[in-house]
Structure formats: structure tokens, C-alpha cells
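Lecture notes, unit on binding sites. The following record was shown on slide 14. It pairs a sequence with adenosine-3',5'-cyclic-monophosphate.
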Amino acid sequence: MIAKLRAAKRVIAARLRQARPLRTAAGHGRPGNGIDTVDAEREPRAILRQRAYQILEHGRRREPASRAVDWLLVVLVLANVTATVAHTVPDIAAQYGAGLQLLDRLCVLVFAIEYVARIWVAPEHPLLRRRTPAGARLRFAATPMMVIDALALLPLLLELLYPRNELMLLARLVRFLKLARYSPALATIGRLIASERRALLACVIIFTGALLAAAAAMHVVEGAVQPERLGDMPKAIWWAASMLAKIGGGELSPVTTLGRIIAAITVMLGIVCFALPVAIIGRGFYEEIRRRDFVVTFAMVARVPLFARLDAASIADLVGILRARTVPPGTTIIRKGERGDAMYLIASGRVEVESAAGKVVLDEGDFFGEIALLSREPRIATVTAVRPTDLLVLDADDFLRLVDRLPDIGTKVQAVAKERKLGPAAGR
Ligand code: CMP
């Protein structure tokens, strides 16, 4: 009996959900998308927190509020670092000391508000939603960028506890690292280092091998001639390191012919040792930048309504397979009659679909280009960007694999495609 009641309750809840007007992240009710994104019944505080999260953490590239906050923080970080450096010049400190200090205080106040706000919105983070609010906040506080943000506030504490502190300058300049948050390219380098870790580890092993070999050879050949500099292995390793790192420098010149040969080989090894990791990172960086117009982030994918119910691991997989493409207004993304090779999800911006049935506008969170992939027939409409638009591109092969692996997504996409092909009546 209870089971029957529960089943009936589920059916009623599902019907109510269907009856509710469709809403996208942009807030429009519109036929043709079929996926509900925003929980309209959230309490005002939760809505405010979600909004603050979108501005602070979501990184909506085209949203003015998010951009304004980012720019304000970037300007304050730069101003603060410049003021810190200027303050070390006695003349400037004597003349503008009070003003620079006021600027520093103002920056710290804004950074403190920023820190508290980021911690407050942490439970909205897709990766942390399953935790309790306190757990989410604690976990979020331990992320590298939040640790940097906390360090940026440390000088104030230091100053209060020990007014004259030698470490103050270093502590203040840590604030420069806050800029890492605003550099997608830096995030790319971080990811590259992680993905190329095996090759980079091989470089470290090569470097260590070259270091030890050069040090041992020099110790054997010139240890007796220059005992104060090459008399033991630690001294010889120091010599080899300076030769490898300075690429030809080093305070100590070899005095024997064999020593000079070893030094020459060490210098050449140094060039190879430094060129290898530079080439690995450089090539990866170039390919990444060429492949992606912007960096696809976890939050960006988690925000797509189609993927809203996926677990963190599946979203992380998607981050790896989705390509990014930015198109200016007026760009034809899909042309009617062409063969379909990809499906598109709108990360931000707006497109217009022009089909035999008329024109339809699709916004952030919507997708298009699925029909040709499902039916393996030519595109049924032309899709043009009407605003600067960031797209997440899912190649045909990846799309079919995804639908195979996650049948729920396949069912949703098929339902939307059916409705679009046959008109809204087909969906009922
Ligand atoms: P596809 O045929 O692959 O390429 C054009 C796309 O436009 C199509 O897939 C759909 O994703 C989209 N499209 C076509 N008709 C409509 C519609 N009525 N509403 C929304 N999108 C549509």
C-alpha cells in the first residue's frame, strides 16, 4: 500500500514538473529544449547565494557583473603589488607613505570581503553539492586558489601581531598570485604539467643522471687538483648543477684537458636538459591553445542543463572531450543540408535556428545540431550566432559514445530532437 502511494506520488511529481513552464538559465520559457534548469522554489537566501556563486565562481565570460568583479579584483591586486613595491623606495615612502598605506588597507578590506563571499558560496559548487554546507566550505577553503587568497590576507594579521616584520614584503607580494585565477592559460599549463607528468619525470631523471655523472667525472678527474671545490661529491654536484643550470657559467674553470672536456659535455647536456621540458610544455601549450578558443571548465559543463544530473566523474570525462569554440555574431555555425559532424552546447551567447517551420532562438544552456547525428541525415536547419557565443562542441563520435554510455542523456536528446522535428505536439 505504502509502495503504491509512493509510486503515485512520484507520478504526480513528474506530471507537475512537466506542467511547469520550461526555464533556461537565461530565464526564458521556450519550446524546443525540454530540459528544466533552475529550481524555481529555492528560498531567497539560496537564490542570492547561487547568484553570488555565478558571479564569483562560475566565470560566465559574457556576464557583465562577473566581468566587473573580476576586473575590479585584478586592478586592486595590481595596484596593491605596485604600491608594495613603491613603498620600498625611501623617497616615495616618505612622500606618499600614508596614501600607499590607505590603498593597502582598502585592498585588504576588499580581499577579505571577497574571501568570505567565496567561502559562503562554496556549497553551490557542483563538486561540493553533496557535502554539508560546512563540509563544502572547509573543502573549498583547502583548494589552492583559496589558500592563496588566505595568504593574501596574512600580512594584515602579521602586521597586527608584529608591526615591524622582515617577512612583510614577501607576504604582501604573495597577493600577486591571486591573478592566477584570472588566467585560463595558467590553468592550461597546470593541466599540461599534470598530463605530461610522465615525460616530465623522465626529464627530471635525465637531469639528475647528467648531474651525478658530470659531478662524479669532475670529482674523479680534478678532485685532487682543486680539493676545495671538487674534493667531495656534494661540492662536485654543486659545480655540475651550476654548469648545467647556467648553461656554460660556473665560478670554477677546469684546469686539466680532461676536465675541460667534461665541462664542455656538461654544458651541452645542460642545454638538452632544459630544452626537453620546455619543448614538452611548449608543444602541449600550443596544441591546447590552437584546439581551444577558451578553456572548458568543470563548472561550465556542470552548468549545461543536459548534464545537470551527471555525477562528478562523468562531468570530468566530458570536460576532456568537449572542444571550445567562440564565434562572433553573424557566424553561420550550421548550414541546412550539410552533413552533421558535431553537436553544440551553448556555454554563453545566443543563436538563431532557421528552419522550414520558422525562426527559433536558443540561449545559454541549450543545444543544437543533434538531429543530423541521430538520424544520420543532412542538417534540417541553418544556425547562426546572433551574439558573441561560446560553444561547447561534441564531435559526432564522442556524441555516439556518450549516448551509448549514458542512455539517459540519449533519451533526453532524442526527445528534444523529436519535438523539434515534428513540432511541440510530438513531445506530448
Ligand atoms: P541538425 O539538423 O543537426 O542541425 C540544425 C539544428 O537546428 C538541428 O539539428 C536542431 O538541433 C536545430 N533545430 C531545428 N529545428 C529546431 C526547432 N524547431 N527548435 C530548436 N532547434 C531546432
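Take-home: The chain has a mean pLDDT of 81.
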